[in-house]
């Protein structure tokens, strides 16, 4: 495992409040690491990183599936709960998707219906703050 995979597993997945996660390179949209079993398609990774450049559309339409210029993550569309230049929080039913930006990376994480959204947010934001403090 690379260091980012270790961080994903140790800081996110092992909390049992994050279902899956990936670290994306903000400027290129490539995948630096993903949790075991998570496959992030290149077009989805680029769309997730691009969401920060189109916050107004994300706030209005969420991360929709099947519309021109939009995308899905794990074949699901998500409605936007919060979107600013640092974080995007989305939800679909009891499931959620979080995107949190650091200087160089974007952490994408999901939680399932049986997980507490607030604890997932806390874990993801804490990892993002750690990366920011390290200059990443």
TrEMBL record:
It comes from the Eukaryota. SUPFAM superfamilies: Profilin (actin-binding protein) (SSF55770). InterPro entries: PFN, PFN_euk, PFN_sf. One of its GO terms (molecular function) is actin monomer binding. The keyword Transport does not apply. Keywords: Actin-binding. GO terms for cellular component: cell cortex. Pfam families: Profilin. Belongs to the profilin family. This is Profilin.
